[in-house]
Every structure is written in C-alpha cells, then in structure tokens.
Sequence to fold (450 residues):
Amino acid sequence: MNYLMMSLPFLLFLAACGKPQTHQSVEEKITDTNFSNSPVPLKKQNVKCNARTFMKTNASFGLHLFMEAKYVVESKDIFPFLQGRNLRDGKVITKSVYGEEAELLISNEGMRVKVFKNPKDITLCPEVSNYEKETVESAALNTTYFINKTSNKIKTLFPDINLAPITLSIGPSVVRSFITRNWAGELVKESMYMTDNAFYSPATAVITFLPHSKALKERGMKANFWEVPMVASHEYGHHVFQSIYKGALTPLECFGSPKKKKAGLNKSIKLDRTVKQEDVMTAYNEGFADLVAHYTLDSKERDVHDVKCLEVSRDVASPTFYNGKPKIFDEEALRSFFASYEDYTNGTCEDHSYQDVHVIGAIFAHNADKFLGNFTSENDEKLAAIVDWVKYLKAEKKKFILVTPKNFMKQTMTEFVKMSLDKFGKNLDDPNCKLVKDIYPQLELKECSK
Fold:
C-alpha cells in the first residue's frame, strides 16, 4: 500500500480537503466493512499497435456522443491533441491518465489516503479509427476534443488570460470510507465508491470524470457524462474562472450536486449552517462554467435534453427548473440559500434545493444570458461581458472583505448589471429597470426607485 503521493493527478485534490494522517491504529481494529454502491468501470480497449506514432497529419476517430437526446458517432480529427501516441498536447492538456485505484479513509483520527494503483498514460493506436463506447479511450477522446474546443475559443477571444495546461483523469476507482462505531461499540467501515460525477480541482488543475454507478443506470441514466459535450466544456469553464479569479475557492468544483446529509443519522451532524462569501463565489463559478459551455459550443453540443440530472435545470436557455419553479433570484431562493439551517426537504434532480450552489449558479447563468440577450445576440459579446465582470470580482476582492454574504451578492450583481449596460451603451431607464426586477426582484437600485 502506498500513501498519498503528490505526483498522483487525481488525488492531488485531496490535499486541499484536510491533513492526511499516517497512523493505522483505527483501521487495524475494524471488524466489518459495508459497501453501499457499485460502480460500472470503464474498460480499456485492447488493441495491438505496431506503429509508435502517428505519421499522418490527420488522425480521425469516431466520437460516441449524446446530443439532442440521441446517441451519434461523429468523426473528429484528434491529431492536434497528440504527442506521439499519447492523448495530450502539452499545452491544453499536459497529461491524460486512467486506471488509478485509491481509498480515502476518514475517521476521528483524521484523513488518510491509500493508493493501490498509480495511473497510466492514455495512448491511442494509429491503426484504429474507432474505439468502442464505454471504453477509457472513447471517454478520453470525447472530453479531450471538447476541452480543446472551449480552450481554443477562450484563447482566441481573451489572449490576456493565462490558461495553464490541465491534467485529465478518466474513470479512477476511488473509495470513500468513514470509520465509525456500531451499536456494540465495534469499529466498522462504511464505504462508498465515488461515482456519477465530473469535477475540477482548482488547486491542481485536474479535471476528473468518475465512473457511473449501476444504481443510477438502473434509474434511467442514458448518457455518460463524458459523452455529453457540455459537461467537459463546463469543467474546463471552472479552469477559466480560476485562471481569471485566482482565488482560494472550494477544493472541488463538482458538476453534480453533493449528496444530501440525512438529519438524525449521526449526532455529529450540525443542523446549523453558515453561508460565506466563498459560497456565493462558488455559485458564480458554477454559473460561469455553464455559460462558458453555452457560449463556446454549438447548439447541438450544449444540448442536455434527456440527460438525467442535467436536462432543463442545467440548460442555460430554460427559464425553469425540472419541477417548474422559475430561475429567478426571488425571495424564496435567497431566503433558503442564506438560511442558517439545513434544508433536508429536497435536493434531488427533480426537486432542487436552493442551498445547492449549482442551483444558485444555474439561476445566475440563465439570468445573465437573458439580461445580456436584450442588448446583443452574439455569444462572443455576452461571454466578454461575463469575463469582464469576473475580472472586476478579482480586482475588487479586498473591497468586499467585511461585507456580509447577502450584501456581497447584491453589490456584485448590481455591478454586473451596471457593467453590462455600460458595455452596450445602455443605462438604467424604465425598460432596463424592469429587466432587473424580472431577474432579481430584491435588487434595489437607486436609479430605479425614481
């Protein structure tokens, strides 16, 4: 067993979650281990390669994608993203890996990581033109292509933004284990595989696509996240945000919602919650990433119809969530988001929780696009307005140090409105004041109170 190694791409993010412990006293006394889920591992397609590198200047592969509610195979040239046979270019993606196996152990003694298998480089074969669906290579090809598409668009529009290369990790097997005591006082380990998500680690610039679980597939999960272009572009959008803002945000920028805690299962669970400026910024980050995908991909590529947990709610163009509630910064949404208590009544794909930063981010993304759409139909211009605003957030960090989270949101949203109007030569006249009220009813602007 190896312990946390700082060279490992996926597990680098764990260093930001707490200080790993090296002693094994707790684990040695465990009497039982329970697993509560089962992942569907990605297989590695066994292909015999004769050539050591791609000799041609074109390397076309069929990408298995889920777009517009159906599976399609589209041929794309991957040659610009290769170094020899390695699926990386060193500029956008510095390393592309798979096969990592590890366990994250959490107990009252702290956190510890055990590594069972180190990751391997993802390579392609010049003799192959199509990799099968549900393979490591297929997932890596899809995500690599759309990460590069978004990266190239951002670099073209904003050459001043320094985008460091990222690491791409495909399908690692990571077990998260909690060591507790049962009714008899014996130490037991409750374990669960990390599945059904994609996330970005800002501390290490790693984008990870976890395997999906059998349970989610049985509940109707048709498309894998790595087959939905919007997901890869969204995760890279977090990297763009981090490259501009350069702040210490949450250790993981996950695509999906975190698992809801259940009240009453553990006396250590705190029912009180404290919302910080960081939570508002994380919500903005989520909305920004949605907008990056929306503005850098084609209409069919950003489509999320029939994608479980994403359709409607994460569609920037949709004015409502899956349950029909409007995407507005209204009293209900803000009261819940800033509440000092945990909301355990919802939090599923179909019945969202306003305490989830992804939900608040979705409200921001929809309304930012809606507001800007009144002044321009060009996505490049809308994206430029959003990027300018994030640059403002970075420049004015110190100004907001003592501002409450609720006022921080009001002040920064007010600045978004004013910067957007100024960018397109508009002002807060009656029609534009009405637009503001439509998206943020509680945003009281002095120019609109006349």
Notes: Confidence is low (pLDDT under 50) at residues 1-26, 257-270.
